[in-house]
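retry 2 of 3: previous attempt timed out while embedding nicotinamide-adenine-dinucleotide. Reduced batch size to 1 and resubmitted. Inputs unchanged:
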Amino acid sequence: MELKITCIPGDGIGPEIVAEAKKVLDAVAVKYGHQMNYTDILMGGASIDAYGVPLTEEAVQTAKSADAVLMGSIGGDTTTSPWYKLPPNLRPEAGLLAIRKALNLFANLRPAVLYEELAGACPLKEEISAAGFDMLIMRELTGGLYFGERKTVEENGVRKAIDTLTYDENEIRRIAVKGFEIAMKRKKKVTSVDKANVLDSSRLWRNVVEEVAKDYPDVTLEHMLVDNCAMQLVKDPAQFDVILTENMFGDILSDEASMVTGSIGMLASASLNDTRFGLYEPSHGSAPDIAGKDIANPIATILSSSMMLRYSFDLDEEADAIDNAVKQVLKEGYRTADIMSEGCTKVGCKQMGDLLAQKIG
Ligand code: NAD
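retry 2 succeeded.
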């Protein structure tokens, strides 16, 4: 199969970690008889330096013509980089917002996995972390409170701010369908998170999710209030498979879930639209403090490329090969500096990529 992939190396450690992800994808291509067809585009600071804007229309068109986009990360040191002296619409992050909008990416997926070998980095009590966990937070990305009408007014000398939270049933249905589809590829459980005891938007959310669930009889659906979910994530994270939720709840819960893994260099993410197209990137930023030193952890980006194979190309066996390679390399005791612990073997970014590529082949 030919896989048409647009790559955005980006800034900071971005080019280093994307190079390692390509190395691993190339090993997958050789082993399983695929052809990787990469086209690189500039975004963020690299695009500002070359073209004066964080994202060009030409770059958007290149991204749209691919089957998927694989990204490193963008941005620089926000206190010292000249990119942050520019007006907000010309700064690196504006490129990211623009590409998400241009590609209509409404579903954000963030897995939070606690690997047995990295359990020491988990801030939870040992009796909780011992069970490990492997969950995926599916967050609606383009609706809700962050996109509703807002204004600040003054009434009788008192300042008043108004934000509105709106969802229509179509917005809920399309993300719910994605959530159930993805649960079918995992442990077949969806926890839909809302605040249906208070909010109308949550009551509609719950009704529509139940309608969608009828098409997926193999998937177990449960509802959970968001305040309870925030507690359960630290009390019993092993209970979750897919957490399906709206924009603001997902923003907060996905950060909480990331934190309980304790390893920022391991966390992948994906943003999808209603076709098979997706943008895949690590959850971390461009880490300008360690750029160019060959010490960044490329695993989050490599696991993002595994998500790309699974969700944009339906290549589950190939994705499993990458996920298993990561587990195997951790089991053998290889660690980049950020996840290093006593008794393990410290490796750089390139060597970690080499080790993972070897495991595939
Ligand atoms: P960051 O995630 O880049 O770094 C936070 C800390 O984690 C740093 O100490 C860094 O060295 C470390 N770290 C991050 N990724 C690592 C990896 N793969 N291996 C080893 N260590 C790693 O967050 P920040 O410092 O707040 O932001 C730096 C820049 O990244 C900013 O310009 C920010 O706007 C941008 N950013 C971009 C994205 C994106 O592209 N989607 C996301 C978040 C932040």
